[in-house]
Amino acid sequence: MLTNLQARDVETLVHPYTNLVAVRETGPLILERGKGVWVHDVDGKPYLEGMAGLWCTALGYGNEELVEAAAAQMRKLPFTHIFGGKSHDPAIELAEKLKEMAPVPISKVFFTSSGSEANDTQMKLVWYMNNALGRPKKKKIISRMRAYHGVTIASASLTGLAGNHNDFDLPIAGVRHTTCPHYYRLAEAGETEEDFATRLAADLEALIIAEGPETVAAFIAEPVLGAGGVIVPPKSYYPKIEAVLKKYDVFFIGDEVITGFGRLGTAFGCEALEMKPNSISIAKALSSAYQPIGGVMIPEDMYQAMLQESSKLGSFGHGYTYSGHPVAAAVAVKTLEIYERESIFERVRAKIPQFDARRAALEDHPLVGEARGAGLVGAVELVADKKTKQQFDPKLGLAAKCVAFCQEEGLILRNVFGDAITICPPLVISPAEIDELFDRLTRALDKTLDWAVREKLL
Ligand code: PMP
């Protein structure tokens, strides 16, 4: 029986990423307020927000400094744009700060309101650059199976998940997907992680050759694949991939929308994974999600090509109304200030051993095939048979069942492709709260096991 608010909800809203039929029966969980890593529903029940919203509320809830930064900017100048030679202080300050923090040489920053817009922009900039460089055929972009880069037409094409393509007539032309670096699922018998990485680099090279290197413009990768199931590539993967990219003059786009700003204990995920992209997409933790803001960090050679092309055309014909929105930029500046002042990234590093140990221990659970992750992000993959790695029938929705049990236990997590349950708490989670998170998840896994046994699924 739906509450009044739930009934109004299902009569009015189309929910993103939701089973549109089931939600009409169950109604949504309606949240009302939050503090620290905790959120409360409209009945006052507290939940540990184990996903930091959507991998984004890095500083947790109820951060008054961020609220104040937004309010102060709204009072001063709630909106002005940076089109046609205009600018404002928060955008300038934010771009300066980002250049300072950049893990690879970065010349300029282009702002967006989301990660999808950042990756759309990346694709357009690569095309724009190659037109400027006089190589109009070099336009294809290679992504990876199970990558997640967003949902706009271009970024959803880069995403490597069938659910984002089927029935949307995607991917668009000129996007290809290479092998996902998931050792647990895709390694061949007896293959070491090193051999696996070598094979994946060879796969990429074969794809580039088959397409024609003169047609391949860029490769895009999240340091750790997030929404595809939190997949951490083997250590030597990126150096091997980068050697191939260099050989064929293929631009490397890093998508740091989840891993940017401390998630792996470093400012950027690529620093933790020996990855050296040419340009970087950012969003989410850039403002701790208190305001929607993203961006593209652009290297000097790309910028020089942009200057050249736009001088031919008279103007650089790309930009969103909210590119560099002053309130979003002011909140992002404050967020970066807090990360630095409170040594948030160092404190994440100190929490990783406990997080790792609790995560790894989940592999002892009868339902867990792999408990993987890096930094303060992880996933558990549920399997019907641990030895053979046999999966449950996807129609059973076992991970979704487990996430529902988590919710019963007062823990918010998400289930993604392949019966994986993802974990990505606010970076400010305390050691006691990390234990609480894993205790609740373990109880939910036990309930899922009981259910599976009752339903004779095992
Ligand atoms: N890239 C990555 C790595 C992401 O995880 C996401 C969102 N989960 C996006 C891009 C898209 O960001 P947005 O939802 O803000 O458009």
From TrEMBL:
Key words of the record: Aminotransferase, Pyridoxal phosphate, Pyruvate, Transferase
Signal peptide: none
Top-level taxon: Bacteria
Gene Ontology biological process terms, A to Z: biotin biosynthetic process; gamma-aminobutyric acid metabolic process
Enzyme class per UniProt: transferase
Gene Ontology MF terms: adenosylmethionine-8-amino-7-oxononanoate transaminase activity; pyridoxal phosphate binding
Family annotation (InterPro entries): Aminotrans_3, PyrdxlP-dep_Trfase, PyrdxlP-dep_Trfase_major, PyrdxlP-dep_Trfase_small
EC numbers: 2.6.1.113
PANTHER family named in the record: ADENOSYLMETHIONINE-8-AMINO-7-OXONONANOATE AMINOTRANSFERASE
NCBIfam families xref list: PRK06105.1 (NF004767), PRK07480.1 (NF005682)
Protein family per UniProt: Belongs to the class-III pyridoxal-phosphate-dependent aminotransferase family.
Descriptive protein name: Putrescine--pyruvate aminotransferase
Gene: spuC_1
